[in-house]
Amino acid sequence: MTPMTTSPGRAPPQLAGGWEAGLLIFLVLLYVAGAVVNPTFFGSTEALHALLRDTSRVGIIAVGMTFVIANKDLDLSVGSTYGLIAVVFARLFASNVLDLGVVSTVLLCLALGAAIGLVNGVLVTLLKVPAFIATLTMLFIGRGFVLALTHGQAIYYSGKARDYPLFFYLGETNAFGFNNQIAVFAIVALVGALVLAKTRWGYETFATGGNEQAAVYAGIPTNWVRVRAYLISSLAATVSALLAAAQDKGATPLYGVSWELTVIASVIIGGASILGGRGRVIGSCLGAALVVLIDKVLRQGWPITRTVVIDGESIEVSARYTLPAGAVLVFLGLLLVIAVLIEPYLIRRQVAARFWAWIRGRAPPPALEVGGVALEGVQTKGAMASDAILSTKGLGRFLARRDALAIMLAATLWLTGVALRPDYWWNLSNTFAILLNFTELALITIGLTYVIAAGDIDLSVGAVLALAGSTAAYFLKVLGADPMTAIAMGLVAGMAAGLVNATLTVGFKLPAFIATLGMFYMARGLAAWFVAGQQLTGWSETYNLLGRKVNDVLLHFGLVLPPGLLRSVAEVVSIQTLWMFFVAVLAGIVLAYTPFGLKVCATGGNLRAAAYAGINTNRVRFLSLMLAALCATMAGLINIAYFRSFNPVAGQFRELDAIASVIIGGGSIFGGHGTMIGALAGAAVITLVRALLQLNVQGFTMPQHWINVFIGAILIIAVLIDIWVRQANILGRLRAHLAGGGKTRRRSS
Amino acid sequence: MTDAPLPRPIVEMRGIDKAFGAVQALRGVDLVLYPGEILGLVGDNSAGKSTLMKILTGAYQRDGGEILVAGEPVQFKSPHESRDSGIEMIYQDFALCGNMDVGQNIFLGRWPLKGPFVDRGKMYAEADRVLKRLKVDVNSVYQKVESLSGGRQQSVAIARAISFEPRVVILDEPTANLSAMATERLLETMLELKRQGVAQIIISHRLVDIFAVGDRVMVLKRGEYVGDRYIRNTDEHEVLEIIVSGTRERALTADEAGARRPQ
């Protein structure tokens, strides 16, 4: 056998490649097209300068995010970190609040940014919380803090800014005629590109993202590599927020809202893979420029000519068609989903190279040999805690149930309510008011239990609720449809969203969190589009019966109940609560007692084993995601009937509540577990926590945004309990360690 | 070989005990390995082969017994410490990063530096040298590992192990996922390593492979040593018989068996 290894020729480029070149060409073409279509807006150097300036802040965060995504992680908290730092800067610096100097303010902001990154990193690595759930919670907590610190108001400090020209010069145009932010961006991008492509830090990042197990064998400290990436990402968001502070000399609570979408889309368009191990900083920066440009085009709108009739004369007036606020999210969400599909379907399959060969009439390049690298390990989790059930009796048997925690918590919380407000808490009306709040959450939770038990996640349930509600409201109010048509249209819209989720997740094999994250933005954006510029309220009362009490419904049909117990119950029980319980019982029976329910749990417990056993796992996952969308849709239809109007904030934070409910109720974030009783108890816990926090105790009520922070903390704690107590059985191991400590020591001596 | 005085063993394990909870995985197992020797380690499932090797590399900690490497008593707390003593294990799933190229994988975690940057010139030249030394056919050190076939990935994993200049290489089921052609190439690679004086332990279910390249075969059964044989003195039938019905009491070492054998 002769050595066939050729001497190493030219090494492949690391900083940029064909993908980056293509992006650059596309960017230039898009800009030129924009300049032709809308010369007033894109035709000037001023516009190009503004584009670069606005790209700077997104681009800096994208540089940090590239490290995180190359590690096979995700950081959804960057948008709220950006907003929080800008607001904290304002609070610390503004003369009417804390009035610190600029140096101490900047140092405190950097420390806060580092702390957020550290918390993200520790949650994801040491505590093993899935990245999307940890950082999504951080997103909501950060947003809660932003609202709490601003009270919803903007804070400005332009007066004081004049005393510190050196720092605020960062946001100004410099002597060379371009904004200093662009210079900062260029430096950050250059350093980031070199570190990721050419240093050990970067190589370690790719090794960790490509095959973490192999990286560990090779002695790479993968936990530190991942924590480091989160630190870089958070600090990049901090730097970006400081630039915003220098430019705007103030902050509003809306800073950075949905920026995580913009940034992640940028990085993915830039050629990084959501499956880890791939990504280049230069590509991410070009991706950021592309996304910002698309965003600008969408927000700017395009010029149209409108014919106006004045005094019988038709006059052509140039006008501009702009998208309503919020609708831009639809396109950005769509962009994210399409971008995620690029890597597995275009790049890995060498579509460009094959197409080029086909054009030239040559043979296509050889298909990649797919080797036997063990990319995913198979493991069954949570067996230890379940085994404990078999060896227990009586109370112990109850405590060993996965949903025991939720049931006990719900009871404790209810009793706490009685203790705090003995005068009113246990009243029938209050009880049913809580039950009413419970209904919406419980309905969503029912569907989500299936999805989580099947090993997926649906982050879009709250947004789908809003989409279905707004669609029905739009048909009722604007198109004057009858109630049945409106319900049908709401169902169609909601199920279409579910179909997209399920197709992307099952058909295109995207991770569920990224597919449903795209839907999260798209559905919310569509809802905002429907509601734009009009009040969706005031329609036929027949529709609103969906959200009324039983007695009101009976009265509507001319039935009068005789006074008595039946009537007082009918006066407090809502139709929706009855419907929710009906759905819950049905779903509970299917999950616990039918083959389909077992298939759901098998699919979530070990996908490969379930598939080998002949279970059509694709069908199971598809149906579960559709069910989650159906439940969210029903909740949305009921929501607008109950309020007699559609409110754009309907269903906000509901994904957080619902995921927390499922996890508290015994579901595992890694799939394979879930009961309907547990999910309902979990939803009860969340509802009661919200009700208790809103309770007026001796004149004090907690503001809404703090409640969201609180719920976020509960979600994280629930996931940690799930991972460490239920799955890893840390309590049992501790007990065994304490009991067996003496024995092992004796043997080793 | 039997006539010449034996050189000092490179690895000596004496009376190794290991328990996992109530399960006694290993009971007083001895193992000796000489420089340049290829030792096949065979036995039924759960015989303790992988456990013994993981104790040798420091992935597991032994409960009792002692290990000597080149005559020095050692106590490895992790695979990194055994690597420093020249013991390298190649895992069944190769432990490579598919998204990185051949050169980057061979130097995984210890890429050479030039100032703050990775010295790519040196890295690829060294990787090329190691591959040539192994005489394996990987087209280019720039090729991504995920685009290689299983056999070539195995070669990269071995090249990676060789680049540490080890004295002992442990292969865990190296032929399990390979085609017949790739197995043939792997065995050639192992013989090449043997010529260079590297001792090897091969855990395998396939006796054919061990008989093709091995010098000695050692049998474990339910955590106990039940005998070893020189390959030149035995056949597959005898080894199978030891695997199935051997006991500790009737165990013979290779030298004892060789002496008894009617010449």
UniProtKB/TrEMBL annotation, chain A:
<feature type="transmembrane region" description="Helical">
    <location>
        <begin position="510"/>
        <end position="532"/>
    </location>
</feature>
<feature type="transmembrane region" description="Helical">
    <location>
        <begin position="459"/>
        <end position="479"/>
    </location>
</feature>
<keyword id="KW-0812">Transmembrane</keyword>
<feature type="transmembrane region" description="Helical">
    <location>
        <begin position="319"/>
        <end position="342"/>
    </location>
</feature>
<feature type="transmembrane region" description="Helical">
    <location>
        <begin position="76"/>
        <end position="94"/>
    </location>
</feature>
<feature type="transmembrane region" description="Helical">
    <location>
        <begin position="133"/>
        <end position="157"/>
    </location>
</feature>
<feature type="transmembrane region" description="Helical">
    <location>
        <begin position="663"/>
        <end position="693"/>
    </location>
</feature>
<keyword id="KW-1133">Transmembrane helix</keyword>
<keyword id="KW-0472">Membrane</keyword>
<feature type="transmembrane region" description="Helical">
    <location>
        <begin position="622"/>
        <end position="643"/>
    </location>
</feature>
<feature type="transmembrane region" description="Helical">
    <location>
        <begin position="579"/>
        <end position="601"/>
    </location>
</feature>
<protein>
    <submittedName>
        <fullName>Ribose transport system permease protein</fullName>
    </submittedName>
</protein>
<feature type="transmembrane region" description="Helical">
    <location>
        <begin position="106"/>
        <end position="127"/>
    </location>
</feature>
<feature type="transmembrane region" description="Helical">
    <location>
        <begin position="432"/>
        <end position="453"/>
    </location>
</feature>
<dbReference type="InterPro" id="IPR001851">
    <property type="entry name" value="ABC_transp_permease"/>
</dbReference>
<feature type="transmembrane region" description="Helical">
    <location>
        <begin position="20"/>
        <end position="42"/>
    </location>
</feature>
<keyword id="KW-1003">Cell membrane</keyword>
<feature type="transmembrane region" description="Helical">
    <location>
        <begin position="178"/>
        <end position="197"/>
    </location>
</feature>
<feature type="transmembrane region" description="Helical">
    <location>
        <begin position="404"/>
        <end position="420"/>
    </location>
</feature>
<feature type="transmembrane region" description="Helical">
    <location>
        <begin position="705"/>
        <end position="725"/>
    </location>
</feature>
<feature type="transmembrane region" description="Helical">
    <location>
        <begin position="486"/>
        <end position="504"/>
    </location>
</feature>
<feature type="transmembrane region" description="Helical">
    <location>
        <begin position="257"/>
        <end position="275"/>
    </location>
</feature>
From TrEMBL, chain B:
<dbReference type="InterPro" id="IPR003439">
    <property type="entry name" value="ABC_transporter-like_ATP-bd"/>
</dbReference>
<keyword id="KW-0813">Transport</keyword>
<keyword id="KW-0067">ATP-binding</keyword>
<dbReference type="InterPro" id="IPR003593">
    <property type="entry name" value="AAA+_ATPase"/>
</dbReference>
<keyword id="KW-0547">Nucleotide-binding</keyword>
<feature type="domain" description="ABC transporter">
    <location>
        <begin position="11"/>
        <end position="247"/>
    </location>
</feature>
<dbReference type="InterPro" id="IPR027417">
    <property type="entry name" value="P-loop_NTPase"/>
</dbReference>
<dbReference type="InterPro" id="IPR050107">
    <property type="entry name" value="ABC_carbohydrate_import_ATPase"/>
</dbReference>
<protein>
    <submittedName>
        <fullName>Simple sugar transport system ATP-binding protein</fullName>
    </submittedName>
</protein>
<dbReference type="Pfam" id="PF00005">
    <property type="entry name" value="ABC_tran"/>
</dbReference>
<dbReference type="GO" id="GO:0005524">
    <property type="term" value="F:ATP binding"/>
</dbReference>
<keyword id="KW-0762">Sugar transport</keyword>
